[in-house]
Amino acid sequence: MEALHPETNLLSLSKVCKSFKKTGGEEHLVLDGVNLEINEGEIVALLGRSGSGKSTLLRIISGLARPGSGKVLYCGLPVTGPVKGLAMVFQTFALFPWLTVLENVELGLEAMGVPQAERRRRALAAIDLIGLDGFESAYPKELSGGMRQRVGFARALVVEPTLLLMDEAFSALDVLTAETLRTDLIELWLERRIPTKGILLVSHNIEEAVLLADRIVILGTNPGVVLAEIKIPLEHPRDREATAFRHIVDQVYELMTKRPRSAAGKAEAVPLSYRLPGAHITQLAGLVEALTAEPYNGRADLPEIADQMGFGVDQLFPLLEALEILGFAHTEGGDVELTPSGNSFVDADILRRKVIFAEHVIRHVALVAHIRHILDERPGNRAPEDRFLRELEDFFSEDEAEKILQVAIEWGRYAEQFAYEEGSGILSLENPVSFMCQPEALQPK
Question: What element of type H or E holds 328?
């Protein structure tokens, strides 16, 4: 196989923006001025929390969606639709259950008009390359998750893509299967046994990104913007326990947990727009309890606690953000540390925990306080959830607004600030305690 040329540009994105129209006709900005390049001979990992627009960006790169503005060039040519030379491996395997392994792998070649004999030869070669020789006649239901994902890789590689896109391709697999498949992929790449000249890997797993990539691009959220790029000057195979590897992992965690900065350079306060992370009470309590246990005693290295609890970025970061909003913890330098209030919450019994949480949710969570205020002022102390949903949709997409409101309702109910009737969607003050409305209840204990 010919040598790769690092100076050759495969993909170039310049000032790419993308918006979606909400029901009322307003624009919801998903990507804002994204610049990205992938050169021949490199693996680039794209990291970002939920809401950073990773999937939207992949669709734009693959030609399945058009940017609102900006340029997308593949091998120097504008991307205006599906591009020959690009292939994607999906998280959910996306196999046709009524087709055999061989038939699933042949599909892309058939769509390209490749003659049957050539199609069969290339498909069998790809199946053999990816380690599924002997399973050509099997159907997807007969295969394990790891084997089905190997079929997905074979189907992508059989079209001999110049650029391979991977959309969280290992996240649906168990830990050992994912590790085996990652190892096999990097060996095929390093030994030049696949025709691919570049790989763009979208992941929520920081260690996976450091393990595979030559460069990591970190996207911010709401809207998606490039926050940072990190080069990884480590040779393969990479040792997860090596000091240099752990240092890069810590660096990525630190960058991804930094609070947004205002124009004045100061960390912004809890946004008045009412944005809340998707974090459930039981998960928050579980994380706080884990942080107080040995060996952490209230302070932990983020990669270490993530590994202990089996959390990826999309699971851990919303919990950290929620703890910061509530004033129970703060993150700095890739570490998380409980505040005195967080320690008090852990030490309390069930009833006292609810009191502490109620104090903090009214003081720090503007949306919950807003809902309580409206219910206090309304005749009958009742309001439909749609009233607050419409208000949130002035700032967020319909889907995001609904998720934010559900978090606020869960937190407010746990804090006994209001009641919620599941069937009717009515919020009311029928059950909540009243002490939190008293100013003295908001004073520090």
Answer: none
- Is CATH 3.30.70.100 the classification given to domain 9-256? no
Please tell me whether the peptide bond between 303 and the residue prior to it is cis, using omega within 30 degrees of 0.
no
Distance CA 368, CA 381 (A): 15
Contact 418, 369 (CB under 8 A): no
E strands, 191-341, where? Answer: 198-203, 215-219, 226-231, 299-301, 329-332, 335-338
Top-level CATH class of 281-345?
mainly alpha
Q: Tell me which amino acid residue 158 is.
A: V
C-alpha torsion 63→118→8→192, nearest 10: 120
Q: What is the dihedral of CA 336, 341, 342, 343, to 10 degrees?
A: 110
Where along the chain do its domains lie? 9-256, 281-345, 348-442
**Residues 395 and 388: beta-carbon distance below 8 Å:** no
* Cα–Cα nearest to 436, from 375, 381, 369: 369
- The SS3 assignment for 429 reads coil
Helix axes 145-157, 116-129, angle to 10 degrees: 130
Q: What is the pTM of this model?
A: 0.75
Pairing of strands 69-74, 329-332: unpaired
* End-to-end CA, the chain: 70
User: CA-based angle 421:424:428, to the nearest 5?
Assistant: 45
The encoded tokens of residue 11 equal 């993909």
Per-residue pLDDT in tens (0 to 9) along the chain, 445 residues? 444 555 578 999 999 998 887 666 677 788 999 999 999 999 999 998 877 888 889 889 988 888 889 999 999 899 888 888 888 888 777 889 999 999 999 988 888 888 889 999 999 999 998 888 889 999 999 998 889 989 988 998 888 899 999 988 888 788 888 888 889 889 989 988 888 999 999 988 889 999 999 999 999 887 888 999 999 999 988 998 899 998 999 888 888 877 554 333 444 433 445 788 889 999 999 999 999 888 888 888 888 888 888 777 778 888 998 999 999 998 887 889 999 999 999 999 989 999 999 999 998 888 999 899 999 988 889 999 999 988 887 777 788 889 999 999 999 999 999 999 988 999 999 765 544 444 343 333 3
| Residue 15 DSSP symbol | E
